[in-house]
Amino acid sequence: MSKLRSQIDVRLEFPALAQEVSGRPLAYLDSAASTQKPNAVLAAMERFYREDNANVHRGVHTLSQRATDAFEAARRTVARFVNAQSEREVVFTKGCTEAINLVAASWGGANLGPGDRVLVSHMEHHADIVPWQLIAQRTGATVEPFPITDSGEVDLASLEAMLAAGRVKLVGVKHVCNALGTVNPVAEIARLAHAHGALVLADGAQALAHVPVDVQALGVDFYAMSAHKVYGPMGVGALYGRAELLEAMPPYQGGGDMIRTVSFEGTTFNDPPNRFEPGTPNVAGAIGFGAALDWVRAVGLGAIAAHESALTAYSSSRLAEVPGLRVVGTAPERIGVFSFVMDAAHPHDVGTVLDRHGVAVRTGHHCCMPLMRRLGVPATTRISLAAYSNEADVDAAVEALHGVRALFT
Amino acid sequence: MRKESSRMDLQDLYQQTLLDHGKRPRNFGPLPEATHRAEGYNPMCGDEVRLALLVEGDVVREARFEGCGCAISQASASMMTQAVKGQTVVHARELFDRFHAVVVRGEDEASDDDLGPLDCLTGVRQYPNRIKCATLAWHALKDALEGERA
């Protein structure tokens, strides 16, 4: 907390937080679904459209050069933020989901065959499962879940046994679980996978805003990112891929900017990352993404994590005060995400009541239907914290949860 | 003042009758002798209703359901089964049309009185993201009546 700008100041940087919902101050506790955006991000994107708007990698004119410079600067910012060796290892995408689809279609299409196996954890998001199922249908590969424990942690011994059974080409795992908040031991998973000749794709959607990400230290081959989960805009994200892997991968989609020469006799393709970025990219989005990472760096990820950790402990004790409330997922290594069920009411009814108290939470299966089945719950209510969250938000939620009990029991 | 208004809103949605049906759903359980069956599932939220009807001639003799979900989906299913039991198939279809008109299209010409005890479900009109919870069982009713005899 010491290095974090005072909480009041941080909140003031997020204009969307300064409003009332249902006549109460908004308590935004749905940051795992999407974070709010600070003024620095909004200003960077607006400045691009007001002053520099032009297409990138195309024109010789001044504005096109400025747009290109800003776009490529954002790529360097992303590369530095996750400690990639080079910005050529960073491909801009629509978000995490597209990054994973890119790897599945391009790398998977070229490298998977009948009998090959892709392992994904039982806590994976649908975006980490379905792209592999789609490519498996076309290649004859199989997609198998590796188990998790009741507390919501990956079962490394089972993973190792599945790897030892052979023919595993890739292991997919979330760095941080969106439904439970578990921080997965990605470096250990990568070490096991590599020992058995498999690659590793980590989904970093929930990680970037909360835990340090160093793709080289983690030892991952691919790392998927979404800007809007780390204070940036929606509709943009990035894929980190090790340079030699990206260089060997065929194009994902065809179009302008991804080619070197085109003729009806044959087309040659550009080098990575441009090979995987056909069409005019979301330039303002990429600039906003870069601005968001700069904002996190300026505030300090360590300070943010310390603040969130203190608030996580506070939330944990406050939620324990609500009778009949059970938190699902109790891994010791976790971020400020609480998935819970209540005896008194179904998550959807909880969500509606909380909204009428000005408290925004997520309810449902969190795009993790296999995980919900594994944990034996149809759905949960989820509270998720961010740098701007404070005790008043948590207090508002707890008061509203008592209201749920009063209404339904 | 603001606190009161938000509570009043919630009570429009969660009326006592609805809460009671949500907690103690009527006609809940299997119906092995059913002639018509249909399932309703909302992939957005996981609400689930499995409806079974016993139709003799043109009368719905028995209606039962199983499933899980929020108070609104379960109360709606409970009240729907009560409403159609003993009614003709034609009347059950009319009831679907009226319910749909009032809850989904927000039509006023079908006055609330027409829905009788189902009136308490119309509170969802103010909560667009909850309307599907209320209509889930009703779509299962429509599907069951349109489907082949089991």
CATH superfamily of the largest domain in chain A: Type I PLP-dependent aspartate aminotransferase-like (Major domain)
Q: Give the overall shape of chain B.
A: globular
Give the count of helical stretches of chain B: 6
Which band does the percent of strand residues of chain B land in?
15-25%
How many beta strands in the DSSP annotation of chain A? 17
Evaluate the radius of gyration of chain B: 15 Å
Structural class from helices and strands of chain B? alpha+beta
Gap from first CA to last CA of chain A: 39 Å
User: If strands are numbered along the chain, what order do they take across the biggest sheet of chain A?
Assistant: 4-10-9-8-7-5-6
Structural class designation of chain A: alpha/beta
User: CATH fold name of the largest domain in chain A, please?
Assistant: Aspartate Aminotransferase, domain 2
Count of the separate structural domains of chain B: 1
Please give the CATH architecture of chain B.
Answer: Alpha-Beta Complex
Mean pLDDT of chain A: 95
- Which residues of chain A form runs of ≥5 with pLDDT under 50? none
Oligomer class: heterodimer
- Can you give the mean pLDDT of chain B? 87
Compute the number of helices of chain A.
14
Radius of gyration of chain A (Å): 22 Å
What is the CATH first-level class name of the largest domain in chain A?
Answer: Alpha Beta
